[in-house]
Specification:
Blueprint (H helix, E strand, L loop, with lengths): L2 H7 L7 E18 L37 E4 L2 E4 L2 E6 L3 E2 L13 E16 L8 E7 L11 E6 L9 E3 L1 E2 L1 H13 L3 E10 L11 E17 L1
Antiparallel strand pairs: 1-12, 2-3, 4-11, 5-11, 6-9, 6-12, 7-8, 7-11, 8-10
């Protein structure tokens, strides 16, 4: 017989431990991908809102791009900007801001990341956004490059102007590690995201922004008191 059941049967209700479970969403956690920092060299603009086709030889492009945030390479005989990476991070996330953790007693005995939902609330991008990869790390993680940061899941590619919603395809290892972190270490953590914009000759010069939201579905268990 479980201790709490025996405690109830004996009439010793006060102070008896009872199993408690919590299921709650964490979020929405909001990100923005903006092209404000993605500057295309004036020499690489064709005057009609697209990337110009400028011939080049080998790996050298006559467009320097010194005033640009893009690295300009030479691909298949034409100047071609290399993919531009967006590394996005959020303030520290605390589960206590979303669920009544005190009801679980002194410690969390079980945790599960049941899923992650995403929604694009607005999208004015004129170019496709490839898949967005979500990561998580401990509170001390300063950036995506921290060795403690693990992959959590992937948001599918986002066509220009589209505003879909759906489920994030989770990385099973990162999913289990985050749940274990909640049990063994802390309920305070960080979430990061990374994506790229890759355009070539003839493609539109990237403009606009996309607002993405992710919500993490969390299950926790512990022992409260009557």
């Amino acid at each position: 017989m479980k201790p709490w059941v025996f405690c109830w049967a004996a009439g010793l209700v006060q102070g008896c431990a009872v199993p408690v479970t919590l299921d709650f969403p964490v979020g929405p956690l909001e990100y923005e991908v903006s092209t404000d920092d993605l500057v295309v060299p004036a020499e690489l603009a064709d005057g009609n809102g697209s990337i110009a086709t400028i011939p080049c030889n080998g790996s050298v492009c006559p467009v320097e791009g010194s005033q640009s945030s893009l690295v300009i390479g030479c691909l298949e005989g034409a100047c071609d900007p290399e993919p531009y990476s967006f590394a996005l991070d959020l303030p520290v996330v605390d589960l206590a801001a979303y669920g009544d953790l005190q009801s679980l007693g002194a410690r969390i005995s079980e945790a599960e990341v049941q899923g992650v939902q995403y929604r694009v609330s607005q999208n004015t991008l004129n170019v496709e956004l490839p898949e967005v990869t979500l990561f998580w790390g401990p509170q001390t993680a300063a950036s995506l490059d921290d060795a403690t940061v693990l992959r959590l899941g992937v948001i599918p590619r986002l066509p220009a102007g589209a505003a879909p919603s759906g489920r994030v395809e989770l990385d099973s290892e990162g999913q289990r590690a985050l749940a274990d972190y909640f049990v063994r270490t802390s309920t305070v953590f960080r979430v990061f995201a990374e994506t790229t914009v890759d355009v070539g000759p003839g493609a539109p010069i990237p403009q606009g922004a996309a607002q993405l939201m992710a919500t993490i579905d969390v299950h926790l268990a512990g022992s409260g008191e009557l």
